[in-house]
Amino acid sequence: MDQGTSAVCAAVVAVVIVHCAWRHSSDDVKLFIRLLCGSRQPRIDVDSHISTAIVTGAQNKGIEVFAGFREVTYRLVFECQDAGVEKKRVETILPDGNVEMDKEFQPRKGRGLMTFGYSQTIDRKDAKRHVMSPQPTPFIDSDNLPDNPARLALVQTWTVNVNKSFRDEFDIFQFDERNFQGRIHEGFHRDAVDAFRKAMVKCFGSAVVEKWPIMCCKKEKNNPHLVFVGPRSVMEAWLKKKDVQEYLFISEKNNGFKTWFKSKGSWLPRSQRFAFSNMNMDDKCVMYTRASGSLMTSMMTCSQFEKEKTFGAQRTPAK
Fold this sequence. Notes:
This protein is of the alpha+beta class. The protein has helices spanning 3-23, 26-37, 49-60, 124-131, 164-169, 190-204, 206-211, 232-238, 242-248, 302-305, and strands spanning 64-66, 69-78, 88-93, 99-105, 111-116, 120-123, 140-141, 151-154, 158-161, 171-174, 184-185, 188-189, 215-223, 227-231, 250-253, 256-261, 270-275, 284-291, 295-301, 309-311. Helix content is 31%, strand content 32%.
């Protein structure tokens, strides 16, 4: 790299750092710079002295620690390959009513929308602001559930790159009603398929959904990274520790945390918010490293985690 190119790169990095410093806290800036200048891989090495100290500290707080997990993932994906279809706003609505992500989505080949293969619901009171807004979300069905009128069907939807890496990772087949026996077929719930299709029709119209059918995608994978499990009250206090934040690449935020990551093939770090939101203080939650296109600390309730994942061996406290 010549001197001119190096100077331009240095100037771009400086501008990005200044921009990050203006928008975020000092802790965020530190994490941003660490990711910008390197990788987060060494920090999640389960054999390192850093992780040993983190494990011991967590166990001393009553948090269970597991040596990774095995995951059997069932996902429904809609990939409209017609770039002429107008873009849509996609809100990733959580079962507690909070919005995890909100972005514009332009349908085209290689870009899709994804949801879980199992059914989800949301309490009617948590759904109210979404279904009663001037532009109601297509991801909550306002029709009563026959067995539980206090809850509505939810399609927790996010964007995904349907590229070669995705197709290599997943076994993919198209949903076929003739071969779908009963409510569940190989981990895919019929209610989830119907709710996802209904949401896609609301977004793009029935003709588009008929042209690009729903795909059922399954993969099995072992994740070696540490998993931390404990009541919300304990986990929330534990995340206030600076060494824990540095280890997990997170910064503490009101009612939650911000996690930092760098997507595969990208040099620019990004962040995502997670909120404890409506979880009760005694509800068990799980902190784990999501390893797909990037390494990123994620959180979900223990009940949701166990729907697709099996904990590895539990780490025993040091004597």
